[in-house]
C-alpha cells in the first residue's frame, strides 16, 4: 500500500464489508480494572496539563509519512467477534448496565451525522435529533467533538445536553434545565487550553493563507484546535498540503499534529483529550470513583480512542466504535453507521420506558 492509497482505503474498503453479517456474541463479559480517575476538577487538571506537554512525535503524524487509517485485518468475522454489534448484543449491554446510572457520550461527525465533503454541511437529521433528545430525557448526555463547541451546538440544537468541543478542551454544561442537571453541573466550564487561544488564531490565519493555492483544502478554526480538511483535495496534492502544514508548525513547537478521517488536526501539546473530558464530566455529575455509573461512549474516529481507553481502564461502561471496516480499537462493541447509532439510542429509550 502506498502512502497516498492508505487514505483512499478508508472509503474504498468500506464497501467490501457493508454486506457482512453482524455476529452476535452471547455471554459478553466486562473486565474489571482499577479506576484511574483524577480528582480536583478542571483547574487542577488544566495546571497539570500545562506542565505535562505530550511528545509531539509520539501520537502525531511522523514527518514524511501518511499513517494508514485502516490496519491490516484479514478476517472481518474475527474482528466482529472481538467487537460485536451493539444492536445484536443490546440485551447484554442492558444486563451490564442494570442497577447503574447510564451516562451517554456521543461524538458528532460520523456518529450523529454522516461524513460529508463540506464540513459545514454535516447537518443532523431531525430523526437523529429526536433520538438524542429522547436519550437525554432519561440519561445525562454529552456531545464530545473535535468541532468548536458553539458550532456543534448549532448543529445539534439541544440545550439540555453537555457539550465538549475542541476534542474536550472546551466544556460547558446545559443551558436548559433537565432532571439530570445540578446547580454545579449547569455551571460547568472547563477550558484547559485557554492560554493557547492567541497562538491558535495566529496559526489559523497563516495556514489559511498558505493552503489557499491547494484546491479543496479548508482550514477550520475550532477555537482551541484547528482542522485541515483534505477530503476534497486531489490525492496527488496531499503531500504538498502536508508540507505546507508542517512548514507552518515548525515555528510553533507547543502545537502538535495528529490525524483523523481525511483531516489533519492541530492541537496544543497538553495532556488533555476526549478521555480527560469524559472523566471531568463524570466527576462534575457526581460520579467520580462511583461503581454505580455505566458510561456509554459512541464515536467513529481515532480521537475517540482516548475515551475508549479510559472506559477500559475504569472497567465500567462500554465504548462503541462506529465503522463499516475493521480498525484497531479499544471499544467493546461496534455499529456500522449513524443510522445504527440512531436505532441503538431509540432502543435505549424504549428499554427505559418499559421500566
Automatic annotation (TrEMBL):
Annotated Pfam families: Trehalose_PPase (PF02358)
Pathway(s) per entry: Glycan biosynthesis; trehalose biosynthesis
Molecular function in Gene Ontology: trehalose-phosphatase activity
Single Gene Ontology BP annotation: trehalose biosynthetic process
Cofactor(s) required, per the database record: a divalent metal cation
Matching Gene3D superfamilies: HAD superfamily/HAD-like (3.40.50.1000), Trehalose-6-phosphate phosphatase related protein, domain 2 (3.30.70.1020)
Record keywords: Hydrolase, Stress response
Enzyme Commission identifier(s): 3.1.3.12
Record's catalysed reaction(s): alpha,alpha-trehalose 6-phosphate + H2O = alpha,alpha-trehalose + phosphate
InterPro entries with a match to the protein in the record: HAD-like_sf, HAD-SF_hydro_IIB, HAD_sf, OTSB-like, Trehalose_PPase
Sections of the chain in a coiled coil: none
Family according to the record: Belongs to the trehalose phosphatase family.
UniProt function note: Removes the phosphate from trehalose 6-phosphate to produce free trehalose. Trehalose accumulation in plant may improve abiotic stress tolerance.
PANTHER family, sorted: TREHALOSE 6-PHOSPHATE PHOSPHATASE, TREHALOSE-PHOSPHATE PHOSPHATASE 3-RELATED
Name of protein: Trehalose 6-phosphate phosphatase
Amino acid at each position: 500500500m502506498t502512502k497516498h492509497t492508505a487514505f483512499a482505503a478508508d472509503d474504498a474498503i468500506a464497501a467490501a464489508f457493508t454486506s457482512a453479517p453482524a455476529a452476535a456474541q452471547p455471554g459478553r463479559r466486562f473486565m474489571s480494572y482499577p479506576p484511574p480517575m483524577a480528582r480536583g476538577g478542571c483547574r487542577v487538571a488544566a495546571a497539570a496539563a500545562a506542565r505535562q506537554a505530550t511528545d509531539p512525535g509520539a501520537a502525531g503524524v511522523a514527518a514524511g509519512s501518511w499513517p494508514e487509517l485502516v490496519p491490516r485485518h484479514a478476517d472481518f468475522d474475527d474482528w466482529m467477534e472481538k467487537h460485536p454489534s451493539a444492536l445484536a448484543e443490546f440485551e447484554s449491554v442492558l444486563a451490564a448496565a442494570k442497577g447503574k446510572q447510564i451516562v451517554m457520550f456521543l461524538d458528532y461527525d460520523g456518529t450523529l451525522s454522516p461524513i460529508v465533503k463540506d464540513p459545514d454541511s454535516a447537518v443532523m437529521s431531525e430523526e437523529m435529533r429526536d433520538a438524542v433528545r429522547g436519550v437525554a430525557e432519561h440519561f445525562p448526555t454529552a456531545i464530545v467533538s473535535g468541532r468548536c463547541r458553539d458550532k456543534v451546538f448549532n448543529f445539534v440544537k439541544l440545550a439540555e445536553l453537555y457539550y465538549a468541543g475542541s476534542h474536550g478542551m472546551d466544556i460547558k454544561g446545559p443551558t436548559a434545565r433537565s432532571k439530570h442537571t445540578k446547580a454545579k453541573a449547569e455551571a460547568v466550564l472547563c477550558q484547559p487550553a485557554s492560554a493557547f487561544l492567541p497562538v491558535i488564531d495566529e496559526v489559523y490565519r497563516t495556514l489559511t493563507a498558505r493552503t489557499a493555492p491547494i484546491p479543496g483544502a479548508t482550514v477550520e478554526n475550532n477555537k482551541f484546535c484547528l482542522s485541515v480538511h483534505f477530503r476534497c483535495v486531489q490525492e496527488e496534492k496531499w503531500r504538498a498540503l502536508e508540507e505546507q502544514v508542517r512548514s507552518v508548525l515548525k515555528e510553533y513547537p507547543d502545537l502538535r499534529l495528529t490525524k483523523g478521517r481525511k483531516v489533519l488536526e492541530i492541537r496544543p501539546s497538553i495532556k488533555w483529550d476526549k478521555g480527560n473530558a469524559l472523566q471531568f464530566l463524570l466527576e462534575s455529575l457526581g460520579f467520580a470513583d462511583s461503581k454505580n455509573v455505566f458510561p456509554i461512549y459512541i464515536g467513529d474516529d481515532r480521537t475517540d480512542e482516548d475515551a475508549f481507553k479510559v472506559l477500559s481502564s475504569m472497567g465500567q461502561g462500554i465504548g462503541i466504535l462506529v465503522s463499516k471496516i475493521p480498525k484497531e480499537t479499544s471499544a467493546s462493541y461496534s455499529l456500522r453507521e449513524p443510522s445504527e447509532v440512531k436505532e441503538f439510542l431509540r432502543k435505549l429509550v424504549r428499554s427505559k420506558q418499559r421500566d
